[in-house]
Amino acid sequence: AHFDRGGAPKAWAQASRRMAGRRVRKKFAAPMQREGAGFVIRRSVGSHQVTTAETDPFLMLDELPLKEFAPGEFPGAPWHPHRGMDTVMYVKQGQGSHEDSMGNKGTLYAGDAQWMTAASGIQHNEGTNHPGGPMHGFQMWINLPAAHKMDPPSYNDISSSAIPKVTKDWGTAAVIAGVVDGVRAPVQPICDVQYVDFELRAGKAFEHALPAGMETCVAHVYRGSGTFGDTQGKDGDCLLFEPTAAESTVAFEAGPDGLDFILMAGRPLREPVVWHGPFVMNTRDEIQQCFKDLQAGTFIKSKGAYRRL
Description:
This protein is mainly beta. The protein has helices spanning 10-17, 52-55, 284-296; strands at residues 24-29, 32-35, 39-43, 58-69, 77-82, 85-93, 95-100, 105-109, 113-117, 122-126, 133-143, 154-158, 165-168, 171-177, 179-180, 183-184, 193-200, 205-210, 216-228, 231-234, 237-241, 248-266, 274-276, 279-281, 305-308. The strands form five sheets. Strands 1, 13, 14, 17, 18, 19, 20, 21 and 22 form a nine-stranded antiparallel sheet that branches. Strand 15 and strand 16 (183-184) form a beta hairpin. The protein is globular. The N and C termini lie far apart (48 Å).
């Protein structure tokens, strides 16, 4: 077979260039860094490569790359607070336990997700006392509108069986939030977003529809390679698409080893973002109030609601 300079079969590269959909405006390799109590992640959204305005309403996407841990080796993220955002944990392989200030405890297994609305405040402990074994997962943060930042906290533990899967000849899509090919996720968060885990078979293609208003669209590739419109992406790449307020599509095609990636799309909030560690508010005064509440023992305003799906 004849190959182009990028190493892809020429017929595959030419077919990819004919695909429609939004164009990619920025592509970069997600940088590696230490997080939590010292484990290594790669951060695409939230890294120095993009601004919060470019990824609005998404604040962060961390991937814990697949690694085998000895019992007790994975340090997790011991007790810490959050205010002003949603945090979403998605486990691809392995397991992770959690507990929080609402008195809830549980364990997420492969394919499970936890959608937590920190809002006015919650404290939790994630992934400590790990029994060992493989671990691969993602944590995403989504900003909350100013009008909802001080709402009571809540969260949904979503089992893999409750996350709808779209299975076609091109591959599968786990619909954690939003809609894919008419299939809707069980969780409808405050912000209008889509959060989908796509796994495409080698050489297969799909064109995903986005409704009007979802201007922001980001793809984080975690395995394989392929094309997004006329831009190639591989394991570890983050691709930021051109914004549009109109109805649109994102077209992608897998390379010879398949293509697995997280797709995030959302309606921007266009509000001021003041971010300090685990707090994301609209003003510096609100950030200072977070610390005052912690020191005074008044950080937790409400127990909130818990739901297991």
